[in-house]
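User: Can you recover a sequence for this backbone? Please restate the input before giving your answer.

Assistant: Of course. Working from this structure:
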């Protein structure tokens, strides 16, 4: 049996896409992923759906225990077992594996068990905290040295490895695991020569939608952190560089937008977009109805339908996946024209070797209807052209009804399910300045999970159908 090397990957701190490109590619080939509880669960989407995903912290409930060696052994024994079974295993750590992640203890056990490993770096929490807060950790005028240390050591240590006098000699100090001991640490740094007025920032839940930041001075930061109920995990930055946050904190100043659709995150916008899909696409448990349609196309070709109209890239995906299982040849569609609601759907068609015959300039159901009105006028000799409409189980019926009104025979067929995602996070909606709804179902699911948005938040809808759905909410 072939044994693959174990990959230890830094997932980055915060959002899922802070993982490295290489880390994401390796995850994409994995069969087993053992991940830390702090890792954004969306990172697991880079792994194949069939990969076994195991939360390391569920192996033992002593997450913050000083007797962590038992936990490390449980985790590493599992890794060794999976590697010896010939599995492609990834150990996914929050931030960077080499910084306060107990990597040393795991590597010792792996070495003793002769398990080959590779380490892929990640963006550490302190880097994310500084970047998002606009704090340059080095600056020519105030800081040319950095010290990264822990604010919490195991109780069984007879002597502390942290020499606060040496730590205090650095211009910028970064502390991990320091919130609970912040008062004692502040006093030790002051006793070691740091000014009481030295600026300090505490950033909790770094890089996530829940990130919280407070600033103060060395003399009062512990009191402020307690008053504001700042909890672990958090990064503490001490030094004159913290004052630069007042000028450079782009995160605080940004217009914050919650985007609820499925399309990829947009970057070059006027605001800072947080992507929280409020719909989830899943395959059907029973494809008999769609398969009957596909078999009909295979038998009769363009006599079955004149057009197939795709209103989403998911309709394309599931239609062609089923078609190639049954027919195995795209030539079965010869003579049938293909329409796509927009460029994203047209691009998905190209993935299957199909060029759309029609893509409306206005990417919406209304845009499609306008184009088919022109076709209806030019096609009077064929009194009722037939259109196949692969769609979701909850798709709006407006397009179907509109096409029928202008003379087309429309045959909707369900190709996939649109469901409410599980485990949607709690949100402080007042954090956002704007919410973008991409479809009626995102509105419905938002209201079901979070209720109506606060009145001060701007609501943006994509397309007339979504806008109509929002207006119906406002009437209630």
């Amino acid at each position: 049996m072939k044994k693959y090397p174990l990959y230890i990957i830094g997932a980055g701190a915060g959002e899922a896409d802070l993982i490295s490109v290489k880390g994401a590619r390796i995850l994409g080939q994995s069969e087993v992923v053992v991940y830390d509880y702090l890792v954004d669960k969306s990172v697991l989407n880079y792994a194949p759906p069939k990969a076994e995903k195991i939360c390391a912290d569920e192996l033992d409930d002593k997450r913050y225990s000083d007797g962590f060696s038992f936990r490390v052994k449980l985790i590493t024994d599992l890794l060794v077992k999976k590697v010896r079974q010939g599995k492609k295993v990834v150990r996914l750590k929050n931030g960077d594996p080499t910084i306060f992640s107990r990597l040393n203890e795991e590597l010792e056990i792996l070495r003793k068990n002769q398990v080959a490993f590779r380490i892929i770096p990640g963006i550490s929490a302190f880097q994310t905290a500084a970047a998002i807060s606009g704090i340059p950790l080095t600056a020519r005028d105030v800081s040319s040295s950095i010290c990264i240390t822990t604010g919490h050591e195991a109780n069984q240590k007879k002597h502390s490895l942290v020499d606060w006098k040496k730590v205090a000699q650095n211009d910028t100090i970064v502390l991990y695991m320091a919130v609970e001991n912040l008062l004692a640490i502040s006093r030790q740094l002051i006793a070691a020569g740091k000014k009481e007025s030295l600026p300090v920032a505490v950033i909790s839940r770094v890089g996530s939608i829940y990130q919280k930041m407070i600033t103060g001075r060395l003399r009062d930061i512990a009191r402020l952190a307690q008053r504001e109920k700042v909890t672990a995990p958090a990064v503490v930055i001490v030094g004159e560089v913290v004052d630069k946050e007042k000028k450079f904190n782009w995160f605080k100043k940004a217009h914050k937008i919650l985007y609820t659709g499925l399309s990829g995150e947009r970057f070059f916008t006027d605001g800072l977009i947080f992507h929280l899909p409020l719909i989830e696409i899943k395959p059907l448990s029973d494809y008999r109805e769609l398969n009957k349609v596909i078999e009909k196309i295979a038998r009769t070709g363009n006599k079955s339908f004149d057009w197939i109209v795709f209103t989403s890239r998911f309709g394309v995906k599931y239609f062609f996946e089923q078609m190639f299982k049954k027919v195995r040849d795209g030539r079965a569609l010869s003579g049938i024209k293909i329409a796509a609601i927009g460029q994203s759907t047209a691009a998905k068609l190209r993935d299957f070797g199909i060029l759309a015959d029609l893509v409306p300039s206005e990417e919406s159901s209304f845009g499609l209807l306008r184009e088919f009105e022109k076709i209806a006028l030019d096609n009077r000799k064929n009194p009722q052209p037939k259109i196949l409409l692969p769609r979701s189980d909850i798709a709006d019926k407006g397009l179907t009804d509109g096409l029928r009104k202008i003379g087309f025979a429309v045959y909707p067929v369900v190709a996939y399910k649109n469901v409410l995602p599980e485990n949607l996070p709690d949100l402080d909606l007042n954090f956002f300045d704007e919410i973008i709804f991409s479809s009626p179902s995102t509105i419905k699911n938002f209201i079901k999970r979070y209720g109506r948005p606060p009145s001060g938040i701007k609501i943006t809808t994509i397309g007339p159908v979504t806008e109509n759905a929002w207006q119906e909410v406002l009437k209630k």
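That completes the design. The chain has four domains: 6-123, 127-252, 254-279+421-475, 282-419.
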